[in-house]
Design brief:
The protein is 30% helix and 20% strand. The chain is built from 7 helices and 8 strands, in the order βαβαβαβαββαβαβα. An 8-stranded parallel beta sheet has the order 1-2-3-4-5-6-7-8. β6 (140-147), α5 (148-151) and β7 form a beta-alpha-beta unit. α3 packs parallel to α4 (104-116). The protein starts with a strand and ends with a helix.
Length: 215
Amino acid sequence: MLLVPLYEHPADRPDAWEAVIRSAARLYGVVLNPANGPGSAPDPAFATVAQRLRSAGVRLLGYADTDYARRPHPAVVQDLLRHRDWYGTDGVFFDQVSAGPELLPHYGRLSVAARAAGAATVVLNHGVHPHPGYLDLADVLVTFEGPWDAYEPDVVPEWTAEHPSERFCHLVYAVPPGMPAAELAAERGAAVHCAVPGGGAHPWGTLPYALEAAG
């Protein structure tokens, strides 16, 4: 299952967004991120894309940066409410999530707020394997985000094997052509994944390899 974080404006990359929409049946979901969050006002182009994705039955996750618990709770909640009200998201993608047990209460409150706001799906992006207690707070944990050269030798902790693979996601960028990123994610117990060729400071501006043919 593909979780697609396409951080490009629809006006700049219309073909890429069309490819995502045409591939609706293959997607776990799409992360909407108009402006490192929902922005300060609704964006008509993103609203149109969001409506088309919803009509195609795609799960929409609004991007909200938690800055490793440094962003105030109300600011993060405001992001998810704006995503819901402006773009009709039915879930949330919390980014830059802490991994240690000491911040479980903080993220527990955010998860409760997201559910109260109507989020049917909560994704926590730690980018690394966190304390297993975070599984109680979310539907999916992103337990790897990074480049291919770090992913290939990555080691998966044993506790993950005790849980369904649908609870874990791996996001891999700077993947050379032909590398078996999807197969490796499956072997490591992550049924949700995304592998893109892009690298540098903005890797999520490129389509996943699995969708390139649809572009």
